[in-house]
Amino acid sequence: MAYLLMFVTLLHLITLAMLFIATMEKSWWVWDGMENSDLWYNCRFDNLTETWLCSSSKETEWLQAVQVLMVLSVVFSSVSFLVFLGQLFTMSKGGLFYFTGLCQVFAGLMAFSAALIYTLHKKEILQGSRDLTSGHFGYCFILAWVCVPLLLCSGVIYIHLRKKE
Predict the structure, then answer these.
(1) Whole-prediction pTM value?
(2) Which of 14, 31, 91, 93 suits a disulfide with 35, CB 3.0-4.6 Å?
(3) For the domain with range 2-31+59-160, which CATH number is right: 3.40.50.2000, 3.40.605.10, 1.20.140.150, 3.20.70.20?
């Protein structure tokens, strides 16, 4: 039981960190390594000053939906972890971690929705940016997709997990 508890806790923390990185880092769409776009900024590398120059992304309804869903996913996963810690110390023997699991499943569904919207509506989200055919999805986008099954699996594990002495 102790190993399962450590595994679930470690899985939750790793997934939460990956989800936070996917939400905040600057690599959802990349053009030739010198320009990239994320949920918040469009950045390009300036060779003269050797720094990244960033400007706010053009606000579209689709981009705002992805932003909100990713932030909600981080919030649900964080709340889930805090509730898990609270339940771990206060719940009676034999109790199930239903609320923790449901929060984790909701976090997974939010991340899934955000990544799916970005996948299907990247042309509208990145409008006014460079030609999309010369770019590709960045590692933050991939991290968001990797988080989806991890969040859903940990949510299901939490739902089936019983507290033992």
Answers:
(1) 0.87
(2) 31
(3) 1.20.140.150
